[in-house]
């Protein structure tokens, strides 16, 4: 019962973070584009995410005639549940559950998340939605290879599958200082994994209207929207643990420092969206298969060789 309540509280706070992260995105994009962003609802637009959520969930749910009804309804729910499930690996000082294989758990759930997009596109029975979902699947599978190789390098350095051990290992120095090049590969990979600009080909408005979610409205669209932003926050959290997991010298402040680092990385997602145009799709695929894959594989072999030498 206690574990269930802990999971529930953690997920509620994640959804609140998602709500105000959308407000932060609109404010940041507004100032990047030399405008104010939302500022009419309440004080400085602070209640704007709550107003948006209320509007979306009160809108009429579209029911296209040709959709496969149950997969169409299930896909947004599945995407959000998977995003909330990954949040349980958060290595808090007041943690409610212990994950000795947290890295494997993260890889399993993040790999499953692409099925929500695929089911949403297929069940919509729309050529635009199907093309968007196929793009998302190809993109996610391609960049997952590089992501796993970078994670394996971190596992060999730390010697554990547990995110708590990543934090403990980086108590006095960050892994970023010994693997800064591959950490940049990781950041770009996470942007591609979450289908964010400049890699947002699953939602290419110029050629696919709105991509895989073109047939969704109201509550279904809101759930897809929340799942996407929850994934961004979770990827930011994982990035801060893998490469900046230190600052745990003062135990009662460790969670605070982890939150600050997560916020900075999640802000970087918004900065990239406001600064860079969308990449061409063939260049996106060339980037991972011809550049990131050989580089991350070479770094993994280097780390394995170094660890073997140090063990003797």
From TrEMBL:
InterPro entries named among the record's database cross-references: NADH_UbQ_OxRdtase_su1/FPO, NADH_UbQ_OxRdtase_su1_CS
Entry's EC annotation: 7.1.1.2
Key words of the record: Membrane, Mitochondrion, NAD, Transmembrane, Transmembrane helix, Ubiquinone
Membrane topology summary: Multi-pass membrane protein
A molecular function (GO) term: NADH dehydrogenase (ubiquinone) activity
Subcellular localization, as worded in the UniProt entry: Membrane; Mitochondrion inner membrane
Keyword Cytoplasm in annotation: no
Positions of transmembrane segments: 7-24, 70-90, 97-121, 141-161, 173-192, 221-244, 249-272, 292-310
Catalytic activity: a ubiquinone + NADH + 5 H(+)(in) = a ubiquinol + NAD(+) + 4 H(+)(out)
Main location: membrane
UniProt family annotation: Belongs to the complex I subunit 1 family.
Lineage: Eukaryota, Metazoa, Spiralia, Lophotrochozoa, Nemertea
GO CC entries: mitochondrial inner membrane
Protein known as: NADH-ubiquinone oxidoreductase chain 1
Class in the EC hierarchy, top level: translocase
GO biological process, one term: aerobic respiration
């Amino acid at each position: 019962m206690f574990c269930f309540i802990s999971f529930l509280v953690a997920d509620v706070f994640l959804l609140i973070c998602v709500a105000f992260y959308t407000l932060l995105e609109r404010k940041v994009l507004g100032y990047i584009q030399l405008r104010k962003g939302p500022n009419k609802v309440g004080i400085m637009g602070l209640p704007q995410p709550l107003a948006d959520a209320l509007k979306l969930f009160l809108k009429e749910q579209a029911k296209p005639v040709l959709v496969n009804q149950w997969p169409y309804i299930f896909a947004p729910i599945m995407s959000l549940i998977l995003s909330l499930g990954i949040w349980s690996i958060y290595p808090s000082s007041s943690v409610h559950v212990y994950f000795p294989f947290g890295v494997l758990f993260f890889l399993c759930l993040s790999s499953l998340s692409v099925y929500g997009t695929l089911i949403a596109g297929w069940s919509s029975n729309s050529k635009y939605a199907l093309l968007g979902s196929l793009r998302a699947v190809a993109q996610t599978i391609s960049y997952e290879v590089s992501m796993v190789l970078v994670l394996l390098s971190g596992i060999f350095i730390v010697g554990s599958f547990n995110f708590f051990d990543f934090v403990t290992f980086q108590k006095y120095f960050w892994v970023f200082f010994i693997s800064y090049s591959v950490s940049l590969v990781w950041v770009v990979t996470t942007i591609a994994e979450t289908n964010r600009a400049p890699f947002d080909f699953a939602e290419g408005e110029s050629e696919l209207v709105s991509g895989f979610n073109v047939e969704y409205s109201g509550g279904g669209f809101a759930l897809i929207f929340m799942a996407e932003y929850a994934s961004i926050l979770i990827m930011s959290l994982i990035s801060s643990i893998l490469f900046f997991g230190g600052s745990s010298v003062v135990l009662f402040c460790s969670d605070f420092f982890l939150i600050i680092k997560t916020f900075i990385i999640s802000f970087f997602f918004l900065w990239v969206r406001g600064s860079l145009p969308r990449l061409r799709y063939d260049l996106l695929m060339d980037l991972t298969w011809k550049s990131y894959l050989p580089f991350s594989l070479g770094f993994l072999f280097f780390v394995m060789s170094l660890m073997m030498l140090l063990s003797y």
